[in-house]
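Notebook B, p. 112. Complex prediction, attempt 2.
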Amino acid sequence: MGKPTGFIEYKRQKTKEQPPLARIEHFGEYATRLSDKDLQTQGARCMDCGTPFCHMGIEIRGTAAGCPINNVIPEWNDLVYRGQWKEALDRLHLTNNFPEFTGRVCPAPCESSCVLGINEPAVAIKSIERSIIDKGFEEGWVMPRVPRTRTGKKVAIIGSGPAGLAAADELNQQGHSVTVYERDDRAGGLLMYGIPNMKLEKEVIERRIRLLQQEGIDFVYNTTVGVDITAEELRAQYDAVLLATGAQKQRELRIEGSEGNGVVLAMDYLTSVTKSYVRSNFEDGQAMNVEGKNVIIIGGGDTGADCVATAIRQNCKSVVQFGKHPKLPNARTEETMWPKDPSIFTFDYAYEEVDAKLGRDPREYCIQTEKIVSDTEGNIKELHTIYMEKILGEDGFHYFKELPGTEKVWPVDYVFVAIGFEGVERSLPERFGVELINNRVAATIKDYQTTVPGVFTAGDARRGQSLVVWAIREGREAAAAIHTFLAKEVVSL
Ligand code: FAD
């Protein structure tokens, strides 16, 4: 640690953001870097705390505490403080294949675990991480690393989300020949067509893909495994297969009238907008457009928030977001709103934007959707709701009770359904004959191997909808397991 008094002398500063009214005029990234000098002082705030929980990467009741990929944060904080940026980049790349993704969209469990956070704002770890890698690309320090030798072993990776990409990178560096199959027209999974461009510029993903290609990884696009190429063909052609297909089966809204025109799954909306943006800057007219429309988003998580931010950029007339289904005991109320700490999470941006443009917070809590009413042509026009009260039952659990007299009719043209994901799409795992557990591909955390030898799984497909950083961790660990599996095969020949 270079400056023992840094945490006393300097205040926290994080990545700069364009003001809300300016940034909703476009779909480009709105966060920009601090100056090198400011970043050095931010690095100096890391106080050599002795037990740096920031890089522990443990899971407590499903919530990450510390960095899931064990980034050695205090070390690169110190290197940044000393102005040794290239060394900081090398240290960062040791544990993180894609810091340019996590530096932009990770909810930064490292910052929630920062010891300085006990009585001061946490070290701005995420901003420092992003700056190290962005500077690395600008300076030309991130170069293709082509493996010197090849093992002769072939691995097929199905799915090019962060889990598949991390595994591909690791396995390629071990000298195996890797082919990534992707059903979409570009790589990145939810990084590409789920997370909106303003949070993660798509060129940032494409830049990394070009690098991986130069390093020898093959990408096969527009190819749905199980349809365009069979599971049997893949198994015959490759020594190991990794299912990194995500958990993208969305939960549907099932209330009276939900079949009306204008009720759309959130991911279909987000995907149509991003596809149209990256292919033609919207000139193809393929993006679903809510300009001048009344929009309601059902679902209080980050997918819902991304719909809010997209709708406000399209100049919608109104936008409202309902919190979790109030009949669930863990439904969000004003006291348990999400995100808990807006300085860290990545989707409070949407609420600031609506507030700036329309002068209100779009979020509504403890509200029950009753029915949707359409006009004679089948286009939706009203959403009927009733507010709920949260009460504590005799059994100690919370329940929700309808509040008589709070019925409300909302004028609506579009309802975006963002009420979560049900797990993996079952057809592919079934074709490989692997077992599922709770709508996820069954595999142990130890070796990521499914119930079929030689077939592995990682990322959301194994753990359910999660975070980019967990997908990277799983991809890295699954790659290590596949490497061991392939090495055993060589030994037993
Ligand atoms: P995915 O990213 O889902 O990738 C799976 C890939 O497999 C896809 O490209 C898919 O097309 C492909 N595939 C599936 N089946 C086949 C097949 N049969 N053949 C060929 N290809 C196939 N996390 C964060 O950390 N921060 C955020 O801000 C954030 N925002 C999010 C916003 C939204 C709207 C959503 C939906 C998720 C968000 N997440 C965020 C979660 C994060 O994106 C996921 O946890 C992560 O992408 C999972 O990675 P993965 O590689 O397991 O799967």
